[in-house]
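Dear support,

We are seeing what looks like truncated structure output for some complexes. This example has two components. We would appreciate it if you could run it in full and send us the complete token output so we can diff it against ours.
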Amino acid sequence: MLLNINKLNKTFGDLHVLKDINLTVNEGEFVAILGPSGSGKSTLFQLIGGNQIPDQGEIFLNDELINGKKGFISYMPQQPSLFPWRTVLENVVLAAELKGKPNYEEAKQWLAKVGLADFENSYPIELSGGMKQRVSFIRALLSKQNLLCLDEPFSALDEFTRLKMQKWLLSVWEENRKSILFITHSIEEAIFLADRIYILSKRPAEIKAEIKVPFSRPRDERLLESSEFFTLKQEIFQYIREEITE
Amino acid sequence: MRTFWQRGGKSFLFLLFLFILWEVLVRLTETPKWLLPAPSDVLKEATVGFDTFSGHIFPTISLALIGLVIGSSVGLIIAIILYRLPKVNELFYPLLILSQNIPTIVLAPLLIIWFGFGMLPKLIVISLVCFFPIVVASMDGFRQTAPELKHYMQMVGASRRQIFWKLEFPHSLPSIFSGLKIAATYSVMGAVISEWLGAKAGVGVYMTLAQSSFRIDRVFLAIFFIMLLSVILFGVIRLIEKLLVKGRNEGA
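Here is the complete output from our reference environment:
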């Protein structure tokens, strides 16, 4: 397995944020983490990204201990976080640039593949919200780490764009099966995209349940209307409801 | 370009109106020329007396430009050092602010005593008035880097050095240019002040000579020239800014 998190604990002062988190991501697997806001999902990414050091527990990537080590993951944040003074092409190579000489040809091919070839030399200010997130995703793909961490990447988009982007993400991912760890607070998004879902409790966050999503790939939006989808959604909602009551 | 003319045109017309008002008032009240010359007198002096003035133009321009380049380079380097080494910042930042409280008019004669009448003391004066706006503006620019961009860089494992040169420095370019614009106007002023205190040629020298012989029309000629020079410098910096700062909303 690619990512293996073992008994991870993190506190900030008196605030116990993460409690005994066990989590795995296999090679080529799409894993979603579903939890209420403020449940420490982003802290989990901070730990995996090496910006915070866990109080207890280990994070293994390819059997290597990466507690507090930076630069082992690709990352796509909630905001597109494109650099306004860089063109689209210069932006997508940024993450790769930090590790050495970027491959501009590959970058151009990817931009062409996702229909942004005409915007290669545009600045982010000229792009729509959905386009910016595409650029942000390509940037993450082009950096060569094996694990892709996406932090609520579509939560700032409107409903229509979001569905379009989810389908787009799946279509790109079918071609390029990197392992993905995907944080979201949308049940539907988690079911639609992921192979496996971890449900986090509210603070201190524990893994409340692990759910295998049985739907075959490639998936399309008809899945969203099927009764199996709805049943699974209800099942997950039971767990969430326990978290929002009281 | 059109908006430029719409904006610039209005203030140009207003300026013209003020000049006409000045001209009319001077003529109506029959103010003597040695007290307050009319704009037409100044204009006449600019053409008739151009030969006496022209020799003073180049020294001032070169002094202001060299001073500006040295002052802003020093300012930028100091800002980078202070920002990247917080310990040094704690020690030196208060001193920097204090350095700005020394009145130039007091400092300049001292510098002349120490370094003589050459270029050096003048360049020190100009650099001293120029570097401070650059330091303050650049440091503010570095500090105001968008937090989400910084967070992104940290998550993908960028080193502090990479964060500074790939993110914080380019991000602060508009602030640095704001500082440069202020410094540019200061540099012309600094050049003239330092010339007052002793130089062979320069607008400052021309001004003191004119003042002591009650040639107020020449004083005004010098004042208008200084203004023109400042505006041109400002415009050149604005142009460079437009070429260098890309993909951002139009700044003022």
